[in-house]
Amino acid sequence: MSDRGVASRPSPIAGLGLFAARDFTPGERISPYTGTETSSQPKEASAHGKVYTLEVAPGRWLDGSSGSNPARHANHACHPNAELIWHEEETVAWLTAQQPITAGEEITFDYGFSLAESLFHPCTCGAADCIGRIIADPLRPALRRHLRFSRPRD
Ligand SMILES: [Zn+2]
User: Which end of the chain is less congested by CB atoms within 10 angstroms, N or C?
Assistant: First the structure.
């Protein structure tokens, strides 16, 4: 339980979320993101909104849907407090604190979705400036331009 440092419970963002069971300092490892390596992103993910297969490093996809992956319930947020860092030497990705996290806080990270993927995945993180789609941070300006020009004029 708390010896793992994290707990899963219903989240205000979506479904079950991953929550800190103790405080974490920036740079501290929170939980491994474990799974089976696949060569591409399966399409099933978009059907029910749940996303467990992530590109943990360029060209390296992990299917983290297994019940033994403690980090699988971590939600995406526009202003995440953690990041997923791939450790090549250990062949494991670690959810790592990006800022101080206090016990009870929900742990979120940037799923890093492409523009195309973002169209199928609404973001419900609740931030005042939530862009409304799950999309990699560096791609958000492009999505904002796209949304601005595709919005009906009034
Ligand atoms: Zn958001």
Answer: C
What's the 90 CA to ligand 1 centre distance in angstroms?
31
Report the separation in Å between the CA atom of 110 and the middle of ligand 1, taken as the mean of its atom positions. Answer: 10
pLDDT in tens, 65-117: 888 888 999 999 999 999 999 888 888 889 999 999 999 999 999 998 888 88
Query: What's the gap in Å between 56 CA and the centre of ligand 1?
Result: 20
Could you report the per-residue pLDDT of 17-58, keeping only the tens digit for each?
A: 999 999 999 999 999 998 888 876 655 554 445 678 888 777
Homologous superfamily of domain range 2-150: SET domain (2.170.270.10)
CA of 79 to the centre of ligand 1 (A): 7
pTM given for the model: 0.85
